[in-house]
Design brief:
The complex is a heterodimer of chains A (375) and B (425).
Chain A (H helix, E strand, L loop, with lengths): L1 H5 L1 H6 L9 H15 L6 H26 L7 H16 L13 H25 L2 H21 L1 H4 L5 E2 L4 E2 L2 E2 L5 E3 L2 E3 L1 H25 L1 H11 L1 H6 L4 H27 L1 E2 L6 H14 L4 H21 L16 H19 L5 H10 L13
Antiparallel strand pairs in A: 1-6, 2-3, 4-5
Helix pairs in contact in A: 4-9, 4-12, 4-13, 4-14, 5-6, 5-7, 5-12, 6-12, 9-10, 9-12, 10-12, 13-14, 14-15
Chain B lengths: L11 H18 L13 E2 L5 E2 L7 E8 L6 H20 L7 E8 L4 H11 L5 E5 L2 H6 L1 H7 L2 E4 L19 H15 L7 E7 L2 H17 L2 E7 L7 H10 L3 E5 L2 H13 L6 E4 L13 H7 E5 L9 H13 L7 H22 L2 E2 L1 H9 L4 E2 L4 E2 L12 E6 L7 E8 L2 H5 L3
Helix pairs in contact in B: 2-12, 6-7, 8-9, 9-10, 12-13
The chains are: A mainly alpha (375), B alpha/beta (425).
């Protein structure tokens, strides 16, 4: 795993004297432009699926900083997602629905919600700084149970079992709600508008995490993961680093929570359970531990696959129509999803990013412009 | 990020050209997206009937958002199978409005993400939803349902769903059902003013809505409610029975699942707390009669339900029971079958009336349903004229009965208690 993070060193040393950017840059650019025009073509289902994937990617980047790069197991990620999602609702809500709401501008509410998730992580960090490995995993498990209890019972704040409405995000006079906005004759609703917000947030979050991982803090984090005592001897303030990473990871989760809430348009307590935490762990393991691209790839895989399988499940072979007896499409989709997870872990132990990393070696005879496009 | 960039400068022109060409193609095509707006609502189709979404000259597509792999898997399976049965029978008779019905089923497994995704996927293709399990999810897309105007018949009986023209609750809600249940306890089981009434309920939608009903009855009749909140994962009711026994309750209401009801009744009987116990319709399944709690259940347990049980001798239930058993011989008959059938039949009735009015658009169907009054689908009388009220205030009181088909028999026929009429939602 650590080779992923030692690679950048020679790259940074490459003299930046070339006049023309390489083909890789164009591939990235084309990919980015493609993402930019997707809302003009895709129907709401796909945009929504993409948005879920983007939110998951942001959350997974945070967890990968903590678990992948620093070696701290956290089962409490769903709790911090919930803090972000409900925090946003509470800061931005105007109290018209009878629930606690401060009525702040929504952009400020989003920032504060991320901050609140960070504070929640900070409150927990004395524990996170002392425990490690499986012990921290068990300790963070408690957060899930406390969180779910509060979500179901603090009616005035969370709306209880039925959740609460999420105020639509608005910034610079643009409101991200279903009020139709015609762009090139294409009606823009919530999903289309949020798509761009999601892209911006994901890009910013990804670049920031990349910066952290490639700089001094990243090396310190890897040192803590690989050998804590050695890291301490070399002068890394271990407890402080571990606590700080925990806070940072919580803030990423908080941001993911805000975006998720905006996509759902309503926060529902059921969602923020243990299964969600496990899904995030699955994302980083499947994508690749310790790197931003691993988190993004894993998040896209884990959040899109079940939706795609469910959507196309009735055209699978050996499946009978739901409600007519036999294996139902929903069951078949679950089996396939499970099988895919096992196959990835079994055959790609380094995660899906290994696919991209391995390919050039196998086909080095014919270099092509697309190699290393590790998306 | 992880690959060496040794090949960077090799053959850059070809790749560059390809990338640029791709960009141009994308940019050029942006002008002719299929999403671009061209509204053509209200076309007249076959037979001069106006249609918009989900209806062609040959088919009417209805969405089904069910749960066949999650916590409500048993209910979802029965409901969906009953609805498929309805569609099959309706199509065998030539369909509705000269068009065949078709169900598009998506199983969300009680996962909010999949439920919302399922709605987004099906909404542009279907006329309405004959089934939508999970009231939090219905609430999540409520705003969109209001703009989309598609008729949704949720398989949930929470009062929080009332008030929309497009989301119509079938049968009495949990609060009404509980009020009728306590009315039965007071009129026929000797519960009187000043008594203590135990209420064991699930945390969440269902339980808390039922509790609102028992609190209202307590206020009206001078009862004291002893609350015991439980989680769906609590299966052993020993602690709750001990607490209720200590409090000296004279009767117990349970708003939980069948397993909790069996445990509650069994433990209560074993510890000598022989008071009448009544449950909401979700707190009973005929499978319980195969457990050790069966004798106690038959002796002291009652269920309040919005519709006739499937084992009833009346024409509707007995025909459905026979047809369902013939179509799905391996599956047991439960109340989910009735609920699913009633929803499908209600939708069918609305479609028939919309067809008569030559308007099979979404708004046409909504309007047709609003005109249905005093309509009996074979399991109870429904009135859809008021969106802020459930379609029925009646409850039938049934009891577990090994000898009866479907495992239950009627104790008190469909009745609306006075308290249910005066209850303000």
């Amino acid at each position: 795993m650590s080779d992923v993070l030692t690679k950048p060193a020679p790259e940074a040393a490459t003299p930046r004297t070339r006049k023309l950017p390489g083909p890789r840059v164009y591939v990235w650019l084309a990919g980015f432009v493609l993402l930019l025009v997707l809302p003009f073509y895709l129907e709401r289902f796909w945009l929504q699926a993409g948005l879920f994937a983007m939110a998951a990617a942001i959350g997974a980047i945070g967890l990968n900083l903590l678990t992948g790069a620093t070696g701290q197991l956290s089962m409490g990620h769903a709790f911090f997602l919930a803090v972000g999602a409900y925090g946003y609702c509470a800061f931005a809500g105007d109290g018209a629905d009878g629930l606690t709401g401060l009525g702040l501008p929504t952009w400020l509410a989003a920032v504060l919600a991320v901050g609140l998730a960070g504070v929640a992580g900070g409150v927990f960090s004395p524990i996170a700084g002392r425990l490690r490995g499986a012990y921290l995993g068990i300790a963070t498990l408690a957060l899930i149970f406390i969180g779910q209890h509060v979500l179901f019972n603090a009616h005035d704040l969370t709306g209880g079992f039925n959740g609460r409405d999420v105020p639509p995000f608005s910034i610079f006079g643009l409101t991200f709600d279903d009020s139709e906005l015609l762009v090139a004759a294409v009606p823009f609703g919530t999903a289309e508008k949020l798509w761009y917000l999601g892209l911006v947030l994901l890009l910013a979050g990804g670049l920031f995490a990349r910066g952290v991982l490639r700089g001094r803090p990243g090396r310190a984090m890897n040192a803590i993961r690989d050998h804590q005592i050695a890291a301490g001897v070399m002068g890394v303030p271990v407890a402080r680093y571990r606590a700080a990473v925990f806070v940072l990871s919580s803030m990423y989760a908080g941001l993911a929570g805000v975006l998720l809430a905006l996509v759902f348009q309503r926060t529902v307590p059921e969602y923020f359970g243990m299964v969600l935490s496990l899904e995030y762990l699955a994302m980083i393991v499947i994508g690749g531990l310790g790197s931003v691209s691993g988190a993004v790839v894993g998040a896209v895989f884990v959040s899109l696959l079940p939706q795609i399988l469910t959507r196309y499940s009735d055209s699978l072979p050996l499946v009978s129509e739901a409600g007519t007896g036999g294996v139902s499409p929903g069951e078949a989709a679950k089996y396939l999803y499970g099988a895919a997870l096992v196959a990835v872990v079994l055959f790609l132990p380094g995660g899906l990013v290994r696919l991209a990393a391995r390919r050039p070696k196998a086909s080095s005879a014919q270099p092509s412009g697309t190699e290393g496009n590790d998306r | 990020m992880t690959t060496p960039r040794a090949h960077r400068s090799r053959r850059p022109h070809k790749a560059t050209a390809a990338a640029l060409a791709a960009l141009l193609a994308i940019a050029g095509a942006a002008g002719c997206s299929s999403k671009a707006k061209d509204k053509d609502s209200g076309k007249a189709g076959a037979g001069g009937v106006k249609t918009d979404v989900g209806v062609t000259d040959k088919t009417i597509k209805l969405g089904v958002l069910t749960d066949m792999t999650g916590v409500y898997a048993t209910l979802g399976k029965s409901v969906t199978q009953a609805q498929q049965l309805y569609v099959k029978q309706a199509n065998a008779e030539g369909g509705i409005c000269g068009r065949k019905l078709e169900l598009v089923v998506r199983d969300h497994g009680y996962d909010p993400q999949k439920a919302v995704a399922g709605y987004s996927e099906l909404e542009p293709d279907v006329l309405g939803f004959a089934q939508f399990i999970g009231s939090p999810f219905v609430a999540a897309v409520k705003q969109r349902i209001t703009t989309d105007k598609a008729l949704v018949l949720p398989q949930a009986w929470s009062a929080s769903l009332l008030g929309s023209e497009y989301i119509r609750v079938l049968g009495s809600t949990y609060d009404i059902e509980t009020i009728n249940a306590i009315d039965f306890l007071m009129k026929e089981k000797g519960l009187k003013k000043g008594d203590k009434l135990g209420h064991v309920y699930f945390e969440g939608d269902y339980g808390e809505n039922a509790l609102a009903g028992s609190k209202y009855m307590a206020e009206q009749n001078g009862l004291t409610v002893v609350e015991q909140k439980i989680k769906p994962t609590d299966n052993d009711m020993t602690a709750q029975v001990a607490a209720l026994k200590k409090a000296g309750v004279k009767a117990i209401v349970i708003s939980a699942g069948p397993r909790q009801a069996a445990s509650l009744v069994g433990v209560a009987a074993a510890t000598g707390l022989t008071v009448p116990i009544i449950g909401n319709n979700s707190a009973y399944a005929p499978q319980l009669l195969g457990t050790q709690a069966a004798p106690a259940l038959e002796k002291m347990y009652y269920i309040s339900t919005p519709s006739l049980p499937i084992g009833d001798d009346a024409e509707g239930p007995s025909k459905l029971a026979a047809d369902y058993a013939a179509a799905y011989p391996k599956d047991s008959l439960d109340n989910g079958v009735v609920a699913g059938w009633t929803a499908a039949e209600t939708f069918g009735e609305a479609l028939k009336r919309a067809c008569e009015a030559k308007d099979l658009t979404r708004e046409g169907v909504d309007k047709a349903l609003l005109g249905i009054k005093d309509w009996n689908a074979g399991f109870g009388v429904h009135d859809f004229t008021d969106p802020s009220a459930p379609s029925s205030l009646e409850s039938v009181i049934i009891k577990p009965d090994k000898a009866a088909k479907g495992g239950s028999s009627v104790v008190r026929e469909a009745e609306i208690s006075d308290a249910a009429k005066s209850f303000k939602r």
